[in-house]
Write a structure and sequence with these properties.
2 helices, mainly alpha, single chain
Length: 80
């Protein structure tokens, strides 16, 4: 909690300090001149794995679910 409060206070003070600055560009910038020669990219031989894709039929046992509404439960309990 104290660290968060301190960070917020520090950020607020920095923002107020920057708000009072007046920035004016006095000179245009330029990119440096670069000469590049030679060099070679590496070469790679890549062999991917053999992949066999297929399908098969499976039988899966699914549990049965008995769903009864409230009125059905009342009728069932009244009958016992």
């Amino acid at each position: 909690m104290k660290k968060t409060l301190f960070a917020a206070a520090l950020l607020s003070a920095g923002a107020l300090g920057l708000a009072g600055c007046d920035v004016q560009k006095t000179q245009n910038g330029s990119m440096p001149t670069v000469n590049v020669s030679g060099g070679q990219l590496p070469e790679y031989n890549v062999t991917g794995p053999d992949v066999n894709v297929g399908s098969k039929t499976e039988t899966i046992k699914v549990p049965t679910v008995d769903v009864k509404t409230g009125s059905e439960k009342k009728k069932e309990s009244a009958g016992h």
